[in-house]
Design brief:
single chain; alpha/beta; six-stranded parallel beta sheet; 14 helices; elongated
Length: about 350
């Protein structure tokens, strides 16, 4: 079995698709599967066919229906190689409906022999938009594989007495809504010793400038830049609460699962992707607006025992529901079924 994993960006990037592909690559190779990554940030789409020719895959697995699948769909169709697409977030939530991207996204989805959603909410959304693919959508939840770099730490400096540290790990772009916590946390910083840390690459320059301007000179907020994934465990261990303020998620954010795996409580936007993992008041709190955010953040600041209880529940949930072996088993089962079925591709029209 030879698998080509096609991603918009791969290691050493810490973006969600890169983390997911890296984890799957390690798991597949650990089972003896010949798996290779095609990184479209390094291989232009025009050169993708040549790279795939050299790899000779039996399955092409693209991560993102707009940013990855269209670059390899023609090769898959011409060579009769089954195309699998993992729906990773903005493709299902935005590109599927956005003018200028809608047609290419739906064409790739229609061609795919199988589609993977991380959660039922994404399967429901895609099936409603492209009904004919509903039988081909499978749910495979993500897992956590957070390896620590030996003898390396992220240095956040000394902690003030009673200080509570909030971390927002995300690529800096509008959909992640990273500026949202600044105002409510700023109000709380006048009353409590808190620190707000943002970690992630700047993916949209304008949004990066807005963030840096918003926290400049605050004394209680800082931007760490892009933290290598191998150091995320170290960073998580030094904070008290992890924030997700995204406007949309693909059903299961790596950052949330990683925070839960380290026993950190979540303070997360009340959106479908976050509700698929976090039960309000069990592993963390969900918020709908700034007022709810501030109220729940204050509860977490004031109550260390509450933070401990929520964090312990998150760690237990990840271990129970999202082990890496289960994720690898599900992918291997899907690949084997596709290979056993032969290299047929759907004949559905590729119009929007």
């Amino acid at each position: 079995m030879r698998i080509a994993l096609v991603t918009p960006v791969a290691y050493p990037s810490v973006r969600g698709n890169a983390v997911t592909v890296g984890r799957l690559l390690r798991g597949l190779r650990g089972r003896g599967v010949e798996a290779e990554v095609l990184d479209l940030s390094r291989t232009p789409p025009a050169a993708a066919a040549g790279r795939l020719d050299a790899l000779g895959p039996g399955i092409i697995h693209a991560f993102h229906a707009f940013q990855a699948a269209p670059a390899v769909a023609p090769f898959a169709r011409q060579r009769g190689v089954p195309l699998v697409i993992s729906l990773t977030g903005t493709d299902a939530n935005i590109d599927l409906f956005r003018p200028g991207r809608r047609s290419a996204t739906r064409a790739a989805i229609r061609q795919a022999r199988a589609l993977i959603a991380f959660h039922e909410t994404i399967r429901t959304k895609v099936a409603a938009a492209v009904p004919e693919v509903a039988p081909r959508i499978e749910i495979i939840p993500q897992s956590v594989d957070l390896e620590d770099a030996p003898d390396q730490l992220v240095d956040l400096g000394p902690c003030r007495p009673g200080e509570v540290r909030f971390l927002l790990p995300a690529g800096i772009r509008r959909v992640k809504n990273v500026l949202f916590p600044v105002a409510p946390l700023g109000a709380l910083a006048r009353r409590y010793p808190i620190r707000f840390v943002v970690a992630g690459p700047i993916l949209e320059e304008a949004e990066g400038r807005r963030l840096i301007a918003a926290i400049a000179g605050s004394g209680w907020a800082s931007y760490l830049g892009e933290v290598p994934h191998a150091l995320m465990g170290s960073l998580l261990d030094q904070v008290d609460v992890v924030i997700n303020s995204s406007r949309s998620e693909g059903g299961m954010a790596n950052s949330i699962l990683e925070a839960m795996s380290r026993g950190r409580p979540l303070l997360a936007a009340d959106i479908e992707g976050n509700r698929s993992v976090i039960e309000d008041g069990v592993e963390g709190f969900l918020f709908r607006d700034g007022e709810e955010f501030a109220e729940r953040a204050e509860r977490l600041i004031r109550d260390p025992a509450l933070r401990e209880r929520l964090g312990a529940a998150g760690r237990a949930k990840v271990g129970r529901l999202y082990p890496p072996d289960r994720e690898i088993d599900a992918h291997l089962d899907l690949y084997r079924r596709l290979l056993a079925d032969g290299a047929r591709t759907p004949s559905a029209p590729l119009a929007c």
